[in-house]
Design goal:
Elements (H helix, E strand, L loop, with lengths): L2 E5 L2 E3 L5 E8 L8 E6 L6 E6 L6 E3 L7 E6 L4 E6 L8 E7 L11 E5 L2
Parallel strand pairs: 2-10
Antiparallel strand pairs: 1-3, 3-8, 4-5, 4-9, 5-6, 7-8, 9-10
């Protein structure tokens, strides 16, 4: 069955960095676009970044452009989100999901807390 398992979250100070990973299994990872979403307390889930297949194209929320980088390693069936220059407003649960516009499977999420 399809599984998406996020890891790499934690507590980091403002200005710090984290790299999130999403290990995918149960499907041919290389043939699907993938996305990262986040949900902060009391807010709706929002798109952070997404990546296509092949020679991948990427797309970012304005709030993270220039700070976050989405990438994928198809040999390892893993999706990544490199997060630099983190801000307190980046605090949220981060989810990986399969798809570009329509999403059919979600991971359980990993908590990212940016605080001094």
């Amino acid at each position: 069955q399809v599984q998406l398992v996020e890891s790499g979250g934690g507590l980091v100070q403002p200005g710090g960095s984290l790299r999130l990973s999403c290990a995918a299994s149960g499907f041919t990872f290389s043939t699907y676009a993938m996305s990262w979403y986040r949900q902060a307390p009391g807010k709706e889930r929002e798109l952070v970044a997404r990546i296509t297949t092949g020679d991948p194209s990427t797309n970012y929320a304005d709030s993270v452009k220039g700070r976050f980088t989405i990438s994928r390693d198809n040999a390892k069936n893993t999706l990544y989100l490199q997060m630099n220059s983190l801000k307190p407003e980046d605090t949220a649960v981060y989810y990986c999901t399969r798809g570009w516009v329509n999403y059919d499977y979600w991971g359980q999420g990993t908590q990212v807390t940016v605080s001094s």
